[in-house]
Amino acid sequence: MPLGPKSSAINIHGTTVTDSSHNVPRTPTNITIHPVALFSILDHYLRRTDAQDRVIGTLLGTRHDNEVEVRSSFAVLHSETDEQVAVDMDYHRTMYELHHKVNPKEVIVGWYSTGSNLNTYSALIQNFYSQETSPHQAIHVSVNTGTEEGQEAGVKAYISSPVGVNPKPENCVFVPVPVELRFHDAERSGLDLLANTASLPAATTAQPVADLEIIERALVSVSDMLDRVLTYVRAVLAGEKKGDPAIGRYLMDTLGASTEDLEKGGFNTSLQDTLMISYLANLVRAQAEVSSRLALTAAS
Amino acid sequence: MAATSMAAALAASLPAPSATISVAAPSYEAIPASMAKVIDIEADIPLTCVQLDGLVVTKIIKHAREAPSSTAHGLLLGLDLDGILEVSNSFPLPHRVGDDDDKSSKSSARHQASMLRSLKEVQADDSVIGFYQATTLGAFFNQTLVDTQAIHQDKLRHGGIVIVHDLSQTARGNASFHAYRLTGAFLDAYKKSNFSTASLMSHRLTFSSILEEVPLKIRTNPLLSAFLGKLTETSDEGLPSATIGANSGLAPSFSVLDLGTGGVARNLEQIIEAVDNYRTEEGNLSYLTRQIARERSKAENYIAKRKEENVGRVAQGLAPLPEEDVTRLFKIPAEPSRLESMLILGQIDAYGKSLAGTASTGLVKMYAANASTDV
Fold first, then answer.
1. How far apart are CA B296 and CA B373, in angstroms?
2. Does A289 map to a domain?
3. Engineering a disulfide at B139: which of B169, B177, B297, B350 sits with its beta carbon 3.0 to 4.6 angstroms away?
4. Subcellular location, in the record's words (chain A) (predicted)?
């Protein structure tokens, strides 16, 4: 899933590296971000001091072949003035160790900053993080929070390469890398919950939500989609629109799903199982309740 | 044992309440009248609601999913304002390995202290207001939770809360969070560490009255809302209208409509396991009870005998024998604690509840699917 506005950059993927160069660290060609990292960045941005234009922090994650997976992030203290930039290294180290203790799999993969301008200081910080992540390349994720007028919220990721005849730390080229939001399927409902909350005017929802309510929501959304598809199909049939063969193929695959199994008595068997389980569950609960009440009267 | 170690670790890391008050007291400034109702230094306003920030929601879910064991826990940070406890941040606690109790509890306390210090430096909230715990299939009752919460109750403002997250329910498509705190009755019994039958009766304790639920709300701050709005927004540039949704950051998912009942077998297994545990515990209890009864009847027999003898001796004109050394002769064991069996019952109930929930939604989905095939 892409994050933010489309970029015009062309990302060239080299041929897959063969086994002979196994020890050479590979250039990341794809970056994925877990929502936690993203939300932490936003939270850090909210809590910045007035003097801070942007905030920076460390990204933690894992590396697979050519892919960097950013799984969490933490804020790092830094100060920028016209003359100099300073990053609190001690703080960065302490925080990394604290995180590492809880989740040993996550290592430093790069750094983030808010706002989308890349300047000399970015290059210097990038240089610092490259030392932290060596021999791997450090990645830089810039999160545009979209709070400034005329700017769209979005996430961009870069890797750097030195530039010039004599490479200097303050000079580098930031090469854009495609970035995607990624999370585990099990975490999906949590995000849905947040997205749902965010869309409400008060931005709060009461918990817990009943299972049926969620099912209803999903059904309504399916029904909306069917309506939309129906309008499209009617329009194509009436000749108002030109049919897209790809869409037709998708519709065929989706709607052609067979329900034969349900019709052939599968429904009744399954129904009996479910009823049995329901009965059993209630029986267990009743027993537990009775047992706890009995414990109260035992002595009398 | 792990329970006490975590409890000790927490106790060590939390600031003593008296110390904070003594620091805060001299620096009073007149609280403006408009805020007087909202600011309560002594935590007088009772909690009515817990408000969970979006960041914490994702943090807990991520930690719960990645934790090596089924129980993941961490601390909640935030503050309370006018009866609403705002949870604005959280961090996971390291998973305990091995049984090196003392060392691990110390390192855990150090971990918390330095984490809190570090968070304070970047202007994040750094006051501990409770902890969270992840469970599967709803059974979160255990000794650790109760011990930790009991410590918090003394140390934290408003006694602290525990937020329970059910991972299996989240996987089924309904992310659920519950906030709890200990009830007064349970706390009273816990402080006396007396869970004998008589104590349970006087406090009217069953598993359902150990914890009381506090209403919980999820909130996303405006920045997060805007960002999420951006993610879910559909950008259908150059694509036909029928494929809307494919290009947004968060495509809709329909995992809730899944007819499969994969988790049921696991749920049933756990019920059986819990019932077995309960039986063992009950066996222990009844053994202890029998032993008590035996000792007691022995002691009573002895006293009766002594009394009879004394009556005889008095009749013969001799001095009666002393009667007070019974307690020394017969050691009557203390009445066993019923806390463990109560907690296990709570687990059984929770498993049952989650099973019933699965079954009932399963029924609805099956009939819905059946109805749609008839059309």
1. 70
2. yes
3. B350
4. Cytoplasm
